[in-house]
Amino acid sequence: MFHIGDRIVYPMHGAGIVSAVEEKAILGEKQSCYILKIVYSNMDVMIPVKSAQKIGMREIAKPEDVDRLFSYIKGYTYDTTDSWNKRYRENLDKIRSGDMKQIAEVLKYLMCREEKKPLSSGEKKMLQQAKQILYSEIVLVKNISQEETEAIFKECIGL
Fold first, then answer.
1. Which residues pair with 87 in a beta bridge?
2. Distance, CA of 21 to CA of 32 (rounded, Å)
3. What's the rounded Cα separation, in Å, for the pair 76 and 74?
4. Strands ordered across the beta sheet of 7-10
5. CA-to-CA distance for 129 and 29, rounded, in angstroms?
6. CA 101 to CA 85: how far, in whole Å?
7. DSSP string of the chain?
């Protein structure tokens, strides 16, 4: 169970801080809910406590995990032989996983691809979503700005 002030990651929205734990009536049933303040969007999200683990809510990474991520992403290479549709679905699954490493893989792929040719509207949206999720966690872990996070990531991937 998370507590007020815990820094967490909510897949598909990014990192946030538990601002409250409240009792709410959901479909006529009283449930404990986390109220999360999502860092990137300054949005509040309500998550039933009993659903948190199932949806993949987790504590944010440790600073050493982020350092390992930056080292990993420098050497990561991606396969572009699959069809666009298959790559899109696989990338979406990686983002939905909430796993930093998988999201970083998607981010590297899309940022490098964008350097070569314009992204489709779906890929642009996916790129923004991957940035939001990954950068928001790194901002909380490393206590740096979003701009600094993006600069470090770009340096890691050679942009």
1. none
2. 7
3. 6
4. 43-48, 29-38, 14-26, 7-10, 58-59
5. 33
6. 22
7. ---TT-EEEETTTEEEEEEEEEEEEETTEEEEEEEEEETTTTEEEEEEGGGHHHHT-EEPPPHHHHHHHHHHHHH------S-HHHHHHHHHHHHHHT-HHHHHHHHHHHHHHHHHSPPPHHHHHHHHHHHHHHHHHHHHHHT--HHHHHHHHHHHHT-
C-alpha–C-alpha distance, residues 112 and 136, integer Å: 20
Whole-number percent of the chain with pLDDT over 70: 100
Spatial separation of the C-alpha atoms in residues 19 and 58, rounded to whole Å: 15
Tokens of 156: 């890691």
Q: Which residue numbers in the chain have pLDDT < 70?
A: none
Q: Tell me the C-alpha distance between 37 and 73, whole Å.
A: 28
**What tokens does 116 get?**
């070569």
The predicted-structure confidence for 102-139, as pLDDT tens digits, reads as follows 999 999 999 999 999 899 999 999 999 999 999 999 99
